[in-house]
Amino acid sequence: MKISSLALLSLLLAALWTGSQGVSFRSSYSACCYKDMFIRQKIPALLIKSYQETPSHCSHKAVRMELRNGKKFCMDQDWFQKYQRQKESTRTST
């Protein structure tokens, strides 16, 4: 009885620990951009809801973007730098 209670308690503690550490079990490569995720179209700046640069371990340096309609895709960093310059110039001109 004591052994089964101890085993059950151990399993419960392990489940609680993995639940709290769940983020660490996810692949950090899910934040990377791959060839089929890129689009080449120019996106109007006002449609962009949020963006995030890919981590340094990713093979493609890019920016992951989310549009206001919820769609997500990747853009190369050159385009994104132009976008940021455009956004800054509209801020300073107003």
UniProtKB/TrEMBL annotation:
Record has Cell membrane as a keyword: no
Database matches in PANTHER family: SMALL INDUCIBLE CYTOKINE A
Origin species: Probosciger aterrimus (Palm cockatoo)
GO cellular component: extracellular space
Domain Chemokine interleukin-8-like: 29-87
Keywords annotated in UniProt: Cytokine, Signal
InterPro entries (UniProt xref): Chemokine_b/g/d (IPR039809), Chemokine_IL8-like_dom (IPR001811), Interleukin_8-like_sf (IPR036048)
Record GO biological process: immune response
Protein name, as recorded: CCL4 protein
Gene Ontology MF terms: chemokine activity
Signal peptide bounds: 1-22
Matches recorded under CDD domains: Chemokine
Cited SUPFAM superfamilies: Interleukin 8-like chemokines
